[in-house]
Amino acid sequence: GTLQKFVDDLFETIFSTAHRGSALPLAIKYMFDFLDEQADKHSINDYDVRHTWKSNCLPLRFWVNVIKNPQFVFDIHKNSITDACLSVVAQTFMDSCSTSEHKLGKDSPSNKLLYAKDIPNYKSWVERYYSDISRMPAISDQDMSAYLAEQSRLHLDQFNSMSALHEIYTYIIKYKDEILSALQKDEQSRRQRLRGKLEQVIDTMALAS
């Protein structure tokens, strides 16, 4: 009961497109539209699948990690009691993003029972959030490129670009055939000759090593 308001505020802030003056980051709208486009392209009309894709790539991959590990963001010490409490909040968060019904009984774990009555309300917030994003104006490729360029400029000294490129290169080598094939099949990639350019990078790296 003491924490309820803070949990509500947290969930409301995360699942809102414009909360307390903070606009939704362009990348989220762009990413969710991409997922919807892929679903349309492959004739995936199941609402649960589309919902799960969005949940897996943002709330469950990013926010759950931050909720369980506030020391990643804040200079604080997380003791075992705090860790246990945050695990309950994180579990509630995950259940709120799920499309399946959670049937609880007397033998259900206490961490699921604590917020059982609140989860239907939280689920409606998640659904509204995804729906609100889908109705927002689309982000053009040019606007997204400009946004990423600005982010790169703002954080120029905070990242090791060569390390990031090496990680990407390692991934490309692992899935080289699949990536080259996909680039050859995609019309926009063919126009920009991306397959040939990537093959040149791979050949150059092979010679250098």
Could you characterize the architecture of this molecule?
By secondary structure, the protein is mainly α. Helix content is 69%, strand content 2%. It contains 12 helices and 2 strands. It has helices spanning 4-14, 26-41, 47-57, 59-68, 80-97, 110-113, 119-135, 141-154, 161-174, 176-185, 187-191, 194-208, and strands at 18-19, 22-23. A two-stranded antiparallel ribbon has the order 1-2. Strand 1 and strand 2 (22-23) form a beta hairpin. The radius of gyration is 21 Å and the shape is globular.
The arrangement of helices and strands along the chain is HEEHHHHHHHHHHH
What's the β-strand tally?
A: 2
Radius of gyration: 21 Å
Trace the largest sheet across and list its strands. Answer: 1-2
Task: Indicate the low-confidence ranges by residue numbers.
Answer: none
Helical content band: 55-70%
| General form | globular
Tell me the fraction of residues in β-strands, as a range.
under 5%
What brief labels describe this structure?
single chain; 209 residues; mainly alpha; two-stranded antiparallel sheet; 12 helices; 2 strands; 69% helix
Quick synopsis:
This protein has 209 residues and is mainly α.
Topology, element by element:
Elements: H1 4-14, E1 18-19, E2 22-23, H2 26-41, H3 47-57, H4 59-68, H5 80-97, H6 110-113, H7 119-135, H8 141-154, H9 161-174, H10 176-185, H11 187-191, H12 194-208
Antiparallel strand pairs: 1-2
Helix pairs in contact: 3-4, 4-5, 5-7, 10-12
Protein name: Plexin-A1
Pfam family, one: Plexin_cytopl
Domain Plexin cytoplasmic RasGAP: 1-179
